[in-house]
Amino acid sequence: MDSSNESILFYSPGVSTTAAGLFRLLPEIQVVELLLAISIFVAIHSLRKGSRQGLTSWPVLGMLPSLVLGVRKNIYEWLTGVLNHQGGTFTFCGPWFTSLQCVITADPRNLEHLLKVKFTNFPKGEYFRTSVQDLLGNGIFSADDETWRRQRKIASLEFHSAEFRSMTVQSLVELVHSRLLPVLAAAHDRRTPIDLQDVLLRLTFDNVCMIALGTDPGCLRPGLPEIPFAKAFEDATEATTMRFIMPTGVWKALRYLDLGSERWLRRSIEVVDEFAYEVIRARREELSSSEQTRTARSDLLTVFTKLTDEDGKPYSDKFLRDVCVNFILAGRDTSSVALAWFFWLLNRHPKVEQSILSEIRNITEERGGEADGELVFKPEQVKRMDYLHAALSEALRLYPSVPMDHKEVVEDDVFPDGTVLKKGTKVIYAVYAMGRMESIWGKDCMEYKPERWLKDGRFMSESAYKFTAFNGGPRLCVGKDFAYYQMKVVAASILHRYQVKVVEKHPVVPKMALTLYMKHGLQVTLCRRDEVEPVEKMKKNKS
Ligand code: HEM
User: Fold this and answer.
1) Distance (Å, rounded) from C-alpha 140 to C-alpha 439?
2) What's the CA-to-centroid distance between 325 and ligand 1, angstroms?
3) SS3 for 432?
4) Which atom of ligand 1 is found nearest the CA of 211?
5) Where is heme annotated to bind (predicted)?
6) Distance, CA of 347 to CA of 504 (rounded, Å)
């Protein structure tokens, strides 16, 4: 072996000069054998170590094979197992020479550091923004810094205003009583199963469009029609998610060539934009022609259209489009998916269902007089539904609508648990895993127990860094209060009238997506309370 080659081979800070000397003494064939033996030793050692800790790191491929196996089964369960073994945080190492590296954590101390204490050091980051740019532009969901701060301030003020609250209450009452209940009644009368997740997704899509755009797209109507805007919105979200699975270079090449998922994305965004820009045009016209409309409407589009930017100019159509699209995305599927898991859990916990019914009945009996069909819950009554609030929070603990979230590190940092974070590192926080950790929720962490949220019958909230379903710190979900109100009204209105039964053997598993959908929906049948309860009373009397 030529000595110049040798120095290239062995000059590395990781190899000592003694080792280089040893190698010089060995014939080439033995060097190869020795390297092979070392590789096998390292592989066996890391496999044994890895399998002990629930995570295997292979030579060259890193942890990729473990991840692929995890994705094939259930990525959220796999991550929960690994995080439990690793004490709450670990660094995922992708194949050598790739940038597939990130820190994954489920430690509440780290969450507080990330979401609050060092908030400015952990923005959404360029990687996220570039990936979602075409669909979300500079809206609240994708923006950082001043662009985010300005939208956040306006939205927070608006969500707390009396006009906005009354508009959200009205729009929800209208949707529940004129659309949801008739659709459910028709399914009941037909005696056929219905996909409750689909019905709920339609309801929250219509509702968030009423809040963001002041327009009702009408997805939840008899016959459950396909609405081009809603379909395009769903397709655009799914095609954008594909960008997180592919290497950046690949999706950029597909975009350039207008092929595959990128072609699908471009076309879907065109439909979304056409709808949004038409609503914006009509609203500008309406606002300039009628003083009455200026004061009557309190949806987000109207609020932002009336405001001016930092230079005193009206906001551009593109900015208004970004604001609305981001709010629709944020409030579209989160509450419906949470409600679908909640109804599935109730089906397995009839005692919890009974406790919710008793709470609702106590409240409705105080009012007296109204027939069940006419019963409309008032905001002050919804506020008093503590047990229902607890049952929904408990569903979100076990099945958070946003199962994982991420940030990017701006400057080198260290987590409270000692994990070192280099500038540019991606940090993933595993919300789903956090809800199932004994170290956070105790020995009964896997049980569905609304009582853990109650003290003397009153709902007690938890730290946002322990219960992260709504995020925490300055980027805490803006729609949290509204989401609870919406979920409580929908759940109480259905449960008061129907027993919801999940179709036997219907497979319920989470879908691999940014939102925790049920992969096969939730097929249910409905029994009217007045049909179920005489039978239940008879059973009770007999026993
Ligand atoms: C059960 C229902 C909901 C859950 C679990 C939920 C959860 C979340 C989470 C985890 C985030 C942080 C996302 C991130 O920064 O990556 C978030 C942000 C946000 N949510 Fe919600 N959300 C729900 C309902 C809603 C509703 C109904 C609306 C609006 C009508 C809404 C509006 C927003 C907005 C605007 C943000 C962005 C806040 C910011 O970045 O400053 N959410 N939500």
Assistant:
1) 34
2) 13
3) helix
4) 30
5) 477
6) 11
At 384, which amino acid appears?
R
DSSP 62: B
With vertex at residue 474, the alpha carbon angle to CA 471 and CA 477, rounded to the nearest 5 degrees, is 40
Cα Rg, the chain, nearest whole Å? 27
pTM: 0.87
Could you tell me the two tokens for 190?
A: 């037909």
Nearest CA to ligand 1 atom 11: 477
Residue 452 or 4, more confident: 452
Pocket test for ligand 1, best of 144, 334, 397, 486 (most atoms within 8 A of CB): 334
b (16+ CB within 10 A) / e for 503-518: eeeeebebebebbbbb
Mean pLDDT for the stretch of residues 254-282: 96
Q: Tell me which residue has its CA closest to atom 39 in ligand 1.
A: 475
Return the residue matching tokens 């919406």.
486
Question: What CA–CA distance (Å, rounded) separates 309 from 287?
Answer: 18
Least confident of 149-163, 213-227, 354-368, 489-503: 354-368
Quick one: tokens of 237? 């979200």
Partnered with residue 35 across adjacent β-strands are: none
Instruction: State the pairing for strand pair 426-430/101-105.
Output: parallel
Residue 46 has pLDDT above 60, yes or no: no
H/E stretch holding 22? helix 17-25
Q: Tell how far CA 260 is from the center of its chain.
A: 26
93 annotated as belonging to a binding site for a ligand: no
Give residue 371's pLDDT. Answer: 58
Closest ligand 1 atom to 468 CA: 10
Long-range contacts of 458-463 (CB under 8 A, 24+ apart): 458/386, 459/386, 459/389, 459/390, 459/393, 462/393, 463/108, 463/112
The rounded Cα 9 to chain-centroid distance in angstroms is 48
**Mean local confidence (pLDDT), 270-282:** 95
Query: Residue of the nearest CA to atom 3 in ligand 1?
Result: 334
Average pLDDT, the chain: 87
| Interface confidence (ipTM) of the complex | 0.98
Residue 338 host element (H or E): helix 334-348
> Looking at residue 309, what is its pLDDT?
86
Residue 515 Cα to ligand 1 midpoint, Å, equals 11
Is the Cβ–Cβ distance between 287 and 302 less than 8 Å?
yes
Ligand 1 first shell, C-beta below 6 A: 140-141, 152, 155, 208, 211, 327, 330-331, 334-335, 338, 401-402, 405, 469-471, 475, 477-479, 482-483
Q: What is the DSSP letter of 447?
A: S
CA–centroid distance for 283 within its chain: 31
d(CA 172, CA 193): 25
**CB contact set of 234 (below 8 Å; sequence gap of 6+):** none
